[in-house]
Amino acid sequence: MKKRILIVLSVLLSFLMNAQDYTDIVRLNMSRVNLEDVERTFDTDVTNINFEVLYPKILNDNLVLLAGVTLENTNLNLFASTANENLTMARINAGLKVKHSEKWSGTYVVLPKLASNFESVESRDFQIGAIALLDFQYNEKVRAKFGLYSSSENFGTIITPLLGFFYRSQNKKFHLDAVLPIRMEANYVLADHFSLGLDLRTSVKSYNFIAQDVDFYVQEESVRAALYGSYGFLSDSLLVRAKIGFDTTDYGVYEANDTSGLQVLTFTVNEDDRTRLNNEFDSNLFFGLDFIYRFDISTK
User: Residue 253 pLDDT > 60, yes or no?
Assistant: First the structure.
């Protein structure tokens, strides 16, 4: 799984030179994939629903308050002999965007969350993360971002360096938006309201998992890369996308006290000698549907 993540990210990074500027106020992502374990002992349908709301409030010329929520549910079978489980995450996104100078600004967000199968609510369900992202505006069309994401997880602490680019072409037909390794989107307008694009979403997170009154956790390492067709309504503020892509998400189950310590990207700093309790999942094609309400800063 780690090798597949690195291959995808290294290929994408070689293409990323620039990107664009907008804010997604509301975003609903739905996807479905059938994943088989690498031992070919069973397969499971995986349904993922992710809903995000962001509310930016301008306090003054140099300060914007950011507030939002993220809700995510994944339904799947983790073992051949058990029923499907719901892994659910509820996260608050609270922070500030600060203008430091004419060229530099920063975004600083705290990310407390509950992540579990919610058989019961306990302290292991709670994790907290934070993100700091510096933004350098090269000109009106080109920007770069540098930052760091960190989160406490059931398996330990994860630290992720971030590198971002933003670009919109002069004729506004092409844009590229990336904050690697978390997300990337490339889009080209073919006709009025219709465009084709490439979308990448990745995540590494954990869920407290209680089964038969025993504490476990699920470590999710996800890479979903897709091609999409997009149609815009309401002057392209509301986007509807149909997607087909490649899902390499893995869901590893471990005992609650079997941790790996500090992890950078998908690598553990110390030797990872944990005992995995289920088989690794193989990759497969997935289908998805997105609904996005977008505020385009460059045209407002």
Answer: yes
